[in-house]
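Morning!

This is the sequence you dropped in the shared folder:
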Amino acid sequence: MPIMRGSIQAFLAVITCLSALSRTEAKDKSQTTILRDDQYVCVVGKKGGELRFTLNCRRHSDLPTGVSFDVIEPDSEVLGRGMAPLARKENFSYTLRKDGMHVIALRCRGNTYDIQTGQTPAAHLASKARPLHICGGCRRLHFFVPKSVQEFSIYVHAGTPKEGARVTIHDADGKIVHQEEGDYDKATEIKVQVPSGANDRTWSVMFEDPVDEKSVLDDLLVHLSLNVKPFLVEQEGWATLFVKE
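The structure's back. Tokens below.
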């Protein structure tokens, strides 16, 4: 039975749409850092400045819970607290009463969320005690490598079967210095040598879907070694702001 020209054109149009959708989904995954469970976002500000941020909670479980938070001042006093319900963006604004680093302590059960701080410098905490927990998408994250450091490590753990990551580490000039992928069912240390002259600068890391289609990027725990400040920022120029803190 011959295939009509119109049918071929329609088929090609569908393929084109699906390809465009696939590219959009891939792009979206790298444009938003999606978080899960309790997380800590650090912000640097001055007394009298405005802290504005947006929370967007997504369904990722059968639980109806949104994301709640406390804004904690440098002296551990609580500046404010609030909650963003499931499946709705909420904007929040606070006038800072003190100089220095503030912490947005985020709490969520089962579902995922993201936080956008606009022009306010912010960093995801990624320490051994408080690892960064990303879930399904992540922007390129920047971190500062001190002058004294000749080797550092990034630790990753994707404890759920059929989940994993492709990890790409760039030096300050954008050169790939290490790239690997795995299922990371067990906590894994990725050691990175720092070439001469490449320290005292801002590096970056990307967490993406593995090329191996047997696993996908979903739940992934990340933290930095002790000789690197445990702050991962989404804008390169912010990294040095957290070195002083």
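Headline: The chain has one helix and 18 strands.

More detail when I'm at my desk.
O.
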